Amino acid sequence: MKRARFALLLAASALALSVPFGNAAFANDKLVELAKSNQNWVMPGKNYNSDNFSPMTQIDDKNVKQLKAAWSFSTGLLHGHEGAPLVVEGVMYVHTSFPNYTFALDLKDPGHILWQHKPKQDPAARSVACCDLVNRGLAYWPGEGSTPPLILKTQLDGNVLALNAKTGEEFWKVENSDIKVGSTLTIAPYVVKDLVLVGSSGAELGVRGYVTAYDVKTGAQKWRYYATGPDEDVGLADDFNKANPHYGQKGLGTATWEGDAWKIGGGTNWGWYAYDPGTDLFYYGSGNPAPWNETMRPGDNKWTMTIWGRDAETGKAKFGYQKTPHDEWDYAGVNVMMLSDQKDKAGKARKLLTHPDRNGIVYTLDRENGELVSADKIDDTVNVFTQVDLKSGVPVRVPEKGTRMDHVARDVCPSAMGYHNQGHDSYDPDRQLFFMGINHICMDWEPFMLPYRAGQFFVGATLSMYPGPKGDRQNSLGLGQIKAYNAISGKYKWEKMEKFAVWGGTLATKGNLVFYTTLDGFLKARHADTGELLWKFKLPSGGIGYPMTYEHDGVQYVAVMYGVGGWPGVGLVFDLQDPTAGLGAVGAFKELQNYTQMGGGVMVFSLDGKGPYDDVKVGEFEAN
Asked: Tens of pLDDT along 485-515?
């Protein structure tokens, strides 16, 4: 932490600091209770399981055709709008792309802005941001003692802020990332107990990834650990990987790199977190190594591309499983972590973590000790690996799909975008099904050498992307899928194709429904059992966020961010024409501009468009 600026009076700061850390459990319990309520959506993923599942049934498979727009809100900004809004006790909190505005909207009077936070940022952050100027969301902390309820946010310029949830006033502000070396922030903060967990972005510029915990009341840094480097930097517990020593233990954060390459080796984490209060572990993934050109960094490059289980209070890692040693394809492993309690094939009750990875494999681990339970292909067209060896945990590579120098790797499936990317998926515990949004995209890859320069892109590869084998390569369509997956059997109950990538993720409800957005701008509802399309609505712009749902005054609503952008929309957003521009995205999504345009906001739906508003009565506003 380089600097911290607090928007508190000194007396208030002293009071906040005087509250013992042991009271954190109280705040955590309150957040858990709020997450259980249908009236609230208090964190990314809805709850600590991060399952995006709602038990509400007012909207179901029988009446979903009656969904109509109830109200909408424009953020007034372009670029991609990822993630989902929060709803807490009658207020919707909306985030945006750069310059990272935050709006608090009164659900009793839709569109009424209770407060807005419009920060001033260093415009230099724009030039070092990879793949559009997105932000993935907000976090909420319920307050305690003299500390009010807080909204936590990140900014592209590397700052983390706490805002008074009632007024929008800055409570504290701290610099987490240094944009001078290309380190930015796009991640949604994550609240556990009295801690705010924050990752980092910038592996494409050689940024060494880390995760940091801040005191939610003051912004003071509690701990920080890295993905690469000496064990003390990485934060390995004494019993690290004790249950699975074959995954690797001590000394590998430097030994699996050539020289000091680990210092500019990437492994940032900008995706989604999950937390288990029972194990007191939080779970996340570290991303791709830098540069993309694998010839420049021999070795397994630990601990990039790793699923981590860390102690929330100390930050020490209990386990780390590296999915793709020596990643050659930019398969940044930061995707969603979803927690479930299920019986395995032997009938043993297990506490599980399921993670659909960019490398085309969906992994399920025992979240108590990190043991690999299953590893199935996201699609049968994955061709970089034949399988994952469940005993060693290592994927079995197909040599011709490697990306070594003096070799152009062709028809590599999945592409660097992955068959799954940042979308936040859902899990239906009644059906034991995960509903996953898929990018059905392959690529050609040609590496080249380049020097490292701080604050400049450090990639070293030219990519061409196009639809996967099940798509329409001639017309650049068929770039996405939606799938229902059972992690125990490894089988897919159903799958459906889409014109464009399903980038944002899914929402599952007890009403037998799965909601999701498409890049060309549709919000869709399918039957959870069959995948049958039951309803769709064309949004004002493409969707790269995931739907959420809440109840207000007895009415169930479904809300979703809209605003095309992100990596797949980078060509449209920046008006790029070269098919290899945007790290290969422009060629794959060249048809997108014919289906949608930019513009961000939120749309909210209910049965028959019901909402908390009435016609203004004649004379209502006349002076007395």
From this structure: 999 999 999 999 999 999 999 999 999 999 9
Q: Indicate the pLDDT class of residue 463, thresholds 50, 70 and 90.
A: very high
Distance CA 526, CA 515 (A): 7
136 annotated as belonging to a binding site for a ligand: yes
Burial readout 89-119 (b: 16 or more C-beta within 10 A, e: otherwise): ebbbbbbbbbbbbbbbbebeebeeebbebeb
Contact assessment for residue 229 and residue 263, using Cβ atoms and an 8 Å cutoff:
yes
Neighbouring-strand partners of residue 341: 351
**Taking Cα atoms as reference points, which of 175, 195, 81 lies closest to residue 133?**
81
Q: Is residue 543 part of a domain?
A: yes
Q: Write the CB contacts of 37 (distance below 8 Å, at least 6 apart in sequence).
A: none
Contacts of 193 (CB under 8 A, 6+ apart): 24, 25, 27, 28, 312, 313
Domain range for 149: 4-607
Is position 623 within any domain?
Answer: no
Q: Is 346 annotated as a binding residue?
A: no
All residues at 6 or more sequence positions from 575 whose CB lies less than 8 Å from its CB, including other chains: none
Q: How far is CA 110 from the centre of its chain?
A: 27
Cβ-based neighbours of 338, under 8 Å, separated by 6 or more: 45, 49, 50, 51, 274, 353, 354, 355, 425, 426, 427, 434
- Angstrom distances, CA of residue 573 to CA of 82, 192, 522: 14, 35, 18
In a domain, 149, yes or no: yes
What residues form DSSP beta bridges with 237? none
Residue 117: predicted pLDDT: 99
In angstroms, the CA 315 to CA 232 distance is 11
Beta strands in 199-265, from DSSP E residues, in sequence order: 210-215, 221-226
The pLDDT tens digits of the residues spanning 44-60 come to 999 999 999 999 999 99
**Domain-embedded: residue 34:** yes
Annotated binding-site residue? 268: yes
How far, in Å, CA of 541 to CA of 207, rounded? Answer: 32
Tokens of 454: 């701080």
CATH number at residue 232: 2.140.10.10
Which of 348, 356, 249 shows the shortest CA–CA distance to 303?
249
Residues with catalytic function: 330
Strand order in the sheet with 461-467: 409-412, 441-447, 461-467
CA 57: distance to chain centroid?
26
Q: What are the C-alpha distances in Å from 346 to residues 118, 373, 419, 431?
A: 54, 11, 29, 19
Q: What is the pLDDT of residue 612?
A: 80
Give how many domains the chain has, as a whole number: 1
Confirm if 440 and 501 have CB atoms less than 8 A apart: yes
Taken as a whole, the chain contains a residue count of 624
Query: What is the number of other CB atoms lying within 10 angstroms of the CB of residue 250?
Result: 13
Main-chain phi, psi angles of 105, to 5 degrees: -110, 135
Residue 316 has pLDDT above 60, yes or no: yes
553 annotated ligand-binding residue: no
258 labelled as ligand-binding?
no
Is the dihedral angle over the CA atoms 34, 40, 44, 47 positive or is it negative?
positive
